[in-house]
Amino acid sequence: MKKLFFTVLCTSLAFAGFAQNDAKTLFESGKAKMSKYDAEMVKQQTRQQFDSALMCESLLGGYADFCDALKLDTVPETEKNGTPKIDKKTGKQKVKTKYSKEIVGLISGHHNDYSNIGDIAYSRADYATAIKAWSIYKDLPKAQFLGSARPAALADSTYAKYCYYVGVCCYFSKTENMKAYESFATAVKMGYPDKVAYDLLKQYFQMIAIEYLDKKDYDGCESFVNNAIAEFPTEAYFVMFKGVIIETKTNDIEQAIELYKKSVEMDPTLAQGYFHVGRYYNNKAVNTMNADENKNLTDEELSKLVNPYCEQALPYLKKAVELDETNAEAKRQLQWIEYRLGM
């Protein structure tokens, strides 16, 4: 039994040794990279020629090494006789760290520098690097792993601004659609004033929803849209798009019409919403006219059945065309409705 305990203990200590060696290697690597950044930063501040690419590479590389080192920086504590020192509260072996305090201090101490290299990367059209740098900058004050070393919280307006910046980089790099959507969503919710953020939020909402629909992942799409509506309950476009999902999933506009109607009640300027409602009544008119049971009706008799739907479609299609003159299908349906009504 003693031999088994000794073997387990040695294995545990050996693993801890390997982890500490890795932690030490990563700590020293991260520190060296941070020093390279600091040297270039001095050149930048004193208006000397500096290597902007090296600055970005070094600071982000140092950050990555430090984060990896923190995961490995644990030293199991033992009693004088070599047995594990047990924490009475948790019942687990106590551990201590060797490099973590200095690591979190260095990460936190460079907080503003992540904003700096985000600016540098953006000016070089290196959007992937800018996304990483600005994401770290805005999120470090909330990083639990920094403990009491966390930087001071950003003002809401500042946090919203950097969320917008991250979204814009995603837009220019044509990558990370979900990250772009979430960034713009946060910026809008926190009051970012530029209307472009709101427009891009809706654009990315539609892109992601269509990606789900293209994959026929209707449940995933509906979940995404429901979450968006929960976050933005007054956004008529999201409500309308939920109707599009349901209609696409069921191939039945009857299942979606109430959402289309609700969307134009919420936003009287929503051209697509008006088109969908007008399309619903237009389809009713066409289906009634082409129904087998109505084939032998006179024009007068058919008009009595068809025209009420045409009259319901008319104001919605008119409004759809008025709000969006580029909607060729709305124009075509409106022309047919007006012809049926003798206009």
Poorly predicted runs are 1-18
Mean pLDDT: 90
Distance between the termini: 99 Å
In N-to-C order, the SSE pattern is HHEEHHHHHHHHHHHH
The helix-and-strand class reads: mainly alpha
Oligomer: single chain
Overall helicity: over 70%
Number of helices: 14
β content, as a range? under 5%
List the helices and strands and how they pair.
Elements: H1 2-45, H2 52-72, E1 75-76, E2 95-96, H3 100-109, H4 111-123, H5 127-139, H6 156-173, H7 177-189, H8 195-214, H9 218-231, H10 236-250, H11 257-266, H12 271-290, H13 299-323, H14 328-340
Antiparallel strand pairs: 1-2
Plain-language structure description:
The protein is mainly α and 343 residues long. It has a domain at 1-154. It is 73% helix and 1% strand. The chain is built from 14 helices and two strands; from the N terminus they run ααββαααααααααααα. A two-stranded antiparallel ribbon has the order 1-2. It is elongated and about 105 Å long. The N and C termini lie far apart (99 Å). The model is unreliable at 1-18 (pLDDT under 50).
List keywords for this structure.
single chain; 343 residues; mainly alpha; two-stranded antiparallel sheet; 14 helices; 2 strands; 73% helix; 1% strand; elongated; disordered N terminus
